[in-house]
Amino acid sequence: MRNSTLLALLLATLVVVGCAPKAKEPAGQSAEAETSYVITTRGPKKRVGVVKFENKATYAKRYRVGQAIVDIVTTELAKTDAFILVERSQLDEVLKEQALGQSGAIDPATAAQAGRVLGLQAMIIGTISEFGVHTEHTDALIAKSKKQVARAVVDVRLVDTTTGEILYAGSGTGEAEDTKGELLGFGAKGGYDQSLGQIALRASVKQFMQSLLDSLVTQEWRGKVVKVDAGRGTAIVNAGKETGLQVGDKLQVNRLGEVLVDPDSGRELGQEIGPEVGELEVISLFGQNVSKCKIVSGRTGIAAGQQVTLKERPAPAKPAAPAAASQS
After folding, report:
1. How many beta carbons lie within 10 A of that of residue 243, not counting itself?
2. Would you say the pTM of this structure is higher than 0.85?
3. pLDDT, averaged across the chain
4. Which of 142, 162, 304, 311 could be bridged to 250 by S-S, CB 3.0 to 4.6 A?
5. What's the rounded mean pLDDT across residues 157-180?
């Protein structure tokens, strides 16, 4: 009798204790582990925006999963400290003022147009194509258990705001599960655990994040000429300390073509990049986003509004050799 009681208590302990929500583990690694992303090159920081993802999942219509994905992607980007991220409120305001994305869907052309207004180099857009939770019940004579599994499928695209080109398109799938049990009416009970959805969304983002970062890093950094003083042989560029420009950086200047407009919708599609017209060298930084440059070549061809890219960065100075010890 005593052994039976102890066995029952042991079973109760095993069944009643519910597992905390957790992501399903991909082969070889934990989906919940802190992810470390690899940034292969370090140059000037690009200005990037993340737009609310379109929600195509019927189950998720009552949840703000589109905005949740924006928060997750923005957080992962911020961890790298390799980009300048625009505030979400600024993006929303521009989309509203320009009457863009009124249908709720943001396509590459719309994203590129909004990004150009804010001086961004790249925009991240996407859709939640699947999001849902299913429950599995197990009933024994005196014990019950309930397992909830959340699943999310997220599609993402990276858009070049100047050309309107899609630089990267990818997808991620994430799952999370939570198990609760009870014995003789005692134990963990409850409805849908909303944290499951967050865990599944985060797991889906982590599947494509490294590839997204690789595409962002590969994209060439760009800025603009603000002002030219041909008489003094100087020019002002709209990038500085925040961007990570350095004194001595050589910048290539290119003329920009006309903005291409869709004849049917009237939307801006992108802008062609024209020929090289000159070269600048950064001589001083002031403020957070301004650099003064000397005109190395193309004094008569460089004008405000033209594009600049990093052409050459001086090699870091070698540390001075230690002084030889004096002999007595």
Report:
1. 22
2. no
3. 82
4. 311
5. 91
Domain count, the chain: 2
Residue 105: pLDDT band (50, 70, 90) is: low
Percent of the chain with pLDDT strictly greater than 90: 47
Tell me which residue of 101, 146, 147 sits closest to 123, measured CA to CA: 101
- The answer to the question of residue 317 being in a domain is no
Tell me which residue range forms the domain holding 247.
222-312
Q: What are the structure tokens assigned to 204, written together?
A: 């889906």
The residues, any chain, with a CB within 8 Å of residue 84's CB and separated by 6 or more, are: 45, 46, 47, 48, 242, 243
Is residue 7 situated within a structural domain?
no
Any idea what the CATH number is for the domain that residue 83 is in? Answer: 3.40.50.10610
Cβ-based neighbours of 163, under 8 Å, separated by 6 or more: 112, 270, 271, 272, 273
Which of 175, 200, 218 delimits the end of a domain? 218
Residue reference for tokens 């070549």: 297
pLDDT at 228: 97
pLDDT over 70 at 223, yes or no: yes
Query: 88-97 and 108-117 helices cross at what angle (nearest 10)?
Result: 110
* Alpha-helical runs (H) found in the chain: 2-16, 65-80, 88-97, 108-117, 194-218
Q: Are residues 231 and 209 in the same domain?
A: no
- Residue length of the chain: 328
In angstroms, rounded to a whole number, what is the distance separating the alpha carbons of residues 209 and 78? 12
298: left (phi over 0), alpha (psi -120 to 50) or beta: left
Distance CA 92, CA 101 (A): 10
SS3 281: strand
Same domain, yes or no, for 233 and 121? no
- In single-letter form, the type of residue at position 276 comes to E
